[in-house]
Structures are given as structure tokens and as C-alpha cells.
Amino acid sequence: MPGDDVANVARMADEKVKGPASYFPSIEKKYGRSISEWQAVIAGCGIEGHMAIVNHLKAEYGLGHGHANALVAWTLAGNVAVE
User: Fold this and answer.
1) For residues 32 and 10, what is the distance between their CA atoms, to the nearest angstrom?
2) Residue 7 class from Cβ within 10 Å (0-12 exposed, 13-18 middle, 19+ buried)?
3) 34 with 28: CB under 8 angstroms?
4) Using one digit for the tens of pLDDT, what is the confidence trace for 27-76?
5) What letter does residue 61 receive in the DSSP assignment?
């Protein structure tokens, strides 16, 4: 039924984003790059290992630990940013 679609959209809008993705709006605002751009940086950095990449993002781009960790965890888990 058409009303079901509206109800589903409203329910989804009310659900709170959890996990690494909950950091994404503040990451984009603070550092001026989209999540897909950060994922490209991570993919192209040539570094292996979660913490090594986190440290790279912190040192080279000035990201805070939580933001870098969220981006790396999301990306290494194979998730793709929805824009």
C-alpha cells in the first residue's frame, strides 16, 4: 500500500545511525571531504593494517583518532559510502 512506503521512510528517518557511520556528518563538516573521498584516500595510501592507516590519517591529514578509526573500520569492512 502507498501509505506503507511513507511509514517506512518516516521510520528509517527516525532511526539513529550507529557505529562508525555516526561520525560521518561531523567528519565531512570538519575536514571538508566526503566519505567517499576519504575512502579513496584510504584505498590509495598503500598502507596495510587498521592502526597503521589510522595513524597515517592522523599524521598526514590531521584527523582525530575517533574520526580516523571510524573511517578505517568502515572502509576495511567493505562498506561503501552512500551519498
Assistant:
1) 29
2) exposed
3) yes
4) 999 999 999 999 999 999 999 999 999 999 999 999 999 999 999 999 99
5) H
Beta carbons of 26 and 41 less than 8 angstroms apart: no
Inter-residue long-range contacts of 30-38, CB under 8 Å, 24+ positions, other chains counted? 30/67, 31/61, 31/62, 31/63, 31/67, 34/81, 34/83, 35/71, 35/74, 35/81, 35/83, 36/80, 36/81, 36/83, 38/71, 38/75
Backbone angles phi, psi at 82, to 5 degrees: -100, 120
At 83, list the grid cell: 551519498
Q: Which amino acid is at 55?
A: N
Cell numbers found for residue 59? 599524521
